[in-house]
Each structure stands twice: as C-alpha cells, then as structure tokens.
Amino acid sequence: MSEERCDVLVVGGGPAGLVAARETCAADSGLEVLVLERDRAVGAPVRCGEGVGSKGVSEFLDPTGANWIARKITRVIFWAPDGTEVRVAEGDVGYILDRTRFEPALAADAGREGAEIRTGTEVVGIARDGDGWIARTRGPRGDGVVRARVIIGADGVESMIGRWAGLDTRVPSRDMESCAQYVVSGIEFDPDAIYLHFGDQIAPGGYAWVFPKGVGVANVGLGMVALKADGRPAREWLHAYLDRYFPTGTRTGYTVGGVIVHTTVKRTVTDGLILCGDAAHMINPLSGGGIVTGMKAGRLAGRTVASALADRDTSAARLQRYHNEWMALMGEDHERFYRIKEALNKFDDDFYNRLARTVNGIAPDKRTLGRVFAQALMQHPSLLPVAARYFV
Ligand SMILES: Cc1cc2nc3c(=O)[nH]c(=O)nc-3n(C[C@H](O)[C@H](O)[C@H](O)COP(=O)(O)OP(=O)(O)OC[C@H]3O[C@@H](n4cnc5c(N)ncnc54)[C@H](O)[C@@H]3O)c2cc1C
Q: How far apart are CA 314 and CA 336, in angstroms?
C-alpha cells in the first residue's frame, strides 16, 4: 500500500475542485496540492447541459478563441406551457461549453500553478489524523493512503466527504431534481438561443432545456422533482418531450444525473476541511446552474486554505471565514432564490401562459428582466405577495 503526504488534498476534479487547486497554489506556490479524480478523465463523461453565463465564466478562463466553447449564446427564449414563445435577453448572454475540454483547460491552469492532478483515483474514506486528515484511496496504482493537512471536498452531488467528516449534507427529497438529457442532432432551432420550457406536463417542478452545441445539434434535457412526477423517471418524461417537440432528431448521447436545488449546507467547514461546489449545495436553486457558482466557491476555498495554512491555524473557527464570505457572495442570494422557487412552484400552467402573453406585450427592445418582472406584477396581482415577501 502506497503512502504519501501533501499539504492540501482536493477530492474531485470538477470545476470547483480544479479552481480550488489552482487558487491554493496561486496564493502560496510552496504548498503541495494534490487533486484526486475518480473518473478516468477530468470533464468526461459529461453529465451536464453545459450552459454558463459569459460574465461568470470569464472570471476564471479567457473565452477569446477558446476551444472549450461549443457555442456562443446571444438570446434566451422561454416557452410557456401552451407553447407561447417569449424572447427575453438579447446580447452577450453566455456560452454552451464543451466540458470535455473545459475541465482539462482548468486542470492545465492548476497544473501550471503547481498542483498535481491524478485521475482514475477514488477517495474511499477519510479519518482525522492529528491536526490533519488521512484519506484512503483506490486507483490504478492499487490501494493507498494520503496524509493531508487540509482536505477540500469538491466531490459533487453524491459527495461523501462531507458526510464522512460529520457535516450534514442531507437534501430534502423535494429539493433534489432528477435530470435526463440527450445530445440530439438534426433538429431545427435558433442556434444562438437557449430555450427554457416550463409546464406541469413537460417537467413538473423544473423545466426542459435546449442548449445548442452547434447548428442543428443541441443538449436537450429536462430536470424535474421526482415527487411530482407520477412515479415516472426523468428519462420517460424526456422521451415524451422529444417525441412531441423534436420527433425527427437523432439521439446521439445520453446522460442522467441529480441537481440539488436547495440552499448551501448550514456548515461547510470543520477542522481541517472545507466543502465546495455541489458537495455543499452551492447551486443556483432557481436555474439549477452550478458550474460558475462551484468555481466561485472553489476560488474562495483555495484562498482561505492557503492563508489558514500560512497562519498555521486550520481549525473550523478559522475556516469559517470561507463560509461567511461565500454566504455574502452568493449563499444569501441562493436563499432568496430558493424562496422565489418555492413561491413559483405554487402557480399552475395557466399562470405561466398568462404571464407569457403579458410579457409579449412589452416591446422586444424594452424586454429586460426587470421590466418583465414589473409588468408581471402589474398585470398579475397574485404575484404581489410573492414580491412583497421576497424582494422588498
Ligand atoms: C443533467 C444536468 C444538467 C446540468 N446542466 C447545467 C448547466 O447547463 N449549467 C450549469 O451551470 N450547471 C449544470 N448542471 C450542474 C453542474 O453540472 C454542477 O453544478 C457542476 O458540475 C458542479 O461542479 P462541482 O465541481 O461541484 O462537481 P462535479 O462537476 O460533479 O465534480 C465532482 C467530481 O468529483 C469526482 N468525485 C466524486 N467522488 C469522488 C471521490 N470519492 N474520489 C475522487 N473523485 C470523486 C466526480 O467524479 C466528479 O468529477 C447540470 C447537472 C446535470 C446533472
């Protein structure tokens, strides 16, 4: 059995873990940082719609001419349950990534800063080891142990690191969305737009999406709350959706996965350990997007860990700064978004159909999200209590 040591062990080579590793090394190049990823490659297999906002992603990698962009997006189109189309944002909206190239680009940056990225190696358990941690690992080199002064748990939606460390990472079942997605070729849609499609007959408690990877090819998927789905799995809902809206498309790739549409876990740190990204439920609960939020959390985690190690204080009390900074940066917004999600869940398809028609009454060039909301309030007074509670 191999035995090795490092200063910081990052568990998980997704966006959160790779940015955490990069930022730790960038803050202190003397630290030994090891990233362990259980899949055989970072970024694959893809379990994601791959949509990101352009502003958010640009904080981490330069998109100019980047090979990790599959498509630039310049508009957002909502489809109401009855099919009414609403075009909202126009401009520099975002990108559809190619995550098989995006994560390698993040990994290359982390490697340049000095981190070691090791794929095909899983952490199968952790235990306290003096002031640090000992992690049991399993990989192509056989079983081993890694002793680390700090662990950053960035092990995604099925995180075990938090649980092993005694943090409460349970998710209420109503806040766990089941998702299914195909890459579909040979279909017609606006390749510069992302489409979001709502409705109880489409994706109860969630939405369906069409995210273009190119002309005629898109990630088409849906996420829904299993409790509201008549016992039918997401895959069945997606088949029905594709049969109805894209019957001629060729389904070339398939993925399923869970998205936690909850708020940040109450405790993200303990002695010598930090959780970030999906592992700490740092996903936007309204959109289900977790790539950029995970990277923002990874950046905070890396910087906090480097400064805690420099101060020789990795106690939970010291690492709590990370939690507080995250809550001020995004965590408190997520709590507001969560309450909005809860409120919107109470409306039926008829409400969304009426809202879509109201919004279409606004001139397209004036259709900012703020105006849409203001109009919605005026024409649908039933929204007022929601606004009063959550926006004022
Ligand atoms: C169908 C679907 C569609 C989505 N669409 C979007 C979207 O369009 N836009 C968006 O922003 N978000 C989307 N998301 C969410 C997004 O994928 C995640 O929020 C994001 O990947 C979180 O990053 P992360 O680094 O926290 O976790 P992950 O990307 O999940 O990375 C965690 C990594 O840890 C590894 N790992 C786990 N356990 C261990 C272990 N014990 N040892 C070693 N390695 C381990 C995993 O293999 C994984 O690579 C979608 C999710 C799903 C399921």
A: 31
* CATH code, 231: 3.30.9.10
Same-domain status, 225 and 160: no
Q: What is the pLDDT of residues 34-77, one digit of tens each?
A: 999 999 999 999 999 999 999 999 999 999 999 999 999 998 88
Cβ pair 10, 123 in contact under 8 A:
no
Q: How far is CA 299 from the centre of its chain?
A: 15
Give me the number of domains the chain comprises: 3
**Domain match, 229 and 307 both:** no
CA of 381 to the centre of ligand 1 (A): 39
Q: Tell me the best of 278, 282, 337 to mutate to test the pocket of ligand 1, counting ligand atoms within 8 Å of each CB and taking the most.
A: 278
| Domain extent at residue 246 | 73-90+173-260
> pLDDT tens digit string along 76-96?
888 888 888 888 767 888 999
Residues 226 and 358 reside in one and the same domain: no
Q: Name residue 316's amino acid.
A: A
Question: Alpha-carbon distance 82 to 354, whole Å?
Answer: 10
Contact 276, 327 (CB under 8 A): no
Distances from the Cα of 294 to the Cα of 64, 225, 291, angstroms: 22, 22, 5
* Residues 181 and 125 grouped into a single domain: no
Do 186 and 306 belong to one domain?
no
69-79 and 193-197 beta bridge pairing: parallel
Question: Is residue 80 located within the same domain as residue 185?
Answer: yes
Whole-model pTM: value is: 0.93
- Residues near 155 by Cβ (< 8 Å), separated by ≥ 6? 11, 12, 17, 123, 161, 279
* Residue 282 belongs to some domain of the structure: yes
Query: Which residue among 118, 178, 184, 291 has the greatest number of ligand 1 atoms within 8 angstroms of its CB, and so is best to mutate?
Result: 291
36: which 2 tokens?
A: 């362990």
Instruction: Tell me the C-alpha to C-alpha distance, in Å, between residue 9 and each of 17, 21, 34, 294.
Output: 10, 9, 5, 17
pLDDT digits (tens, 9 = 90+) for 256-283: 999 999 999 999 999 999 999 999 999 9
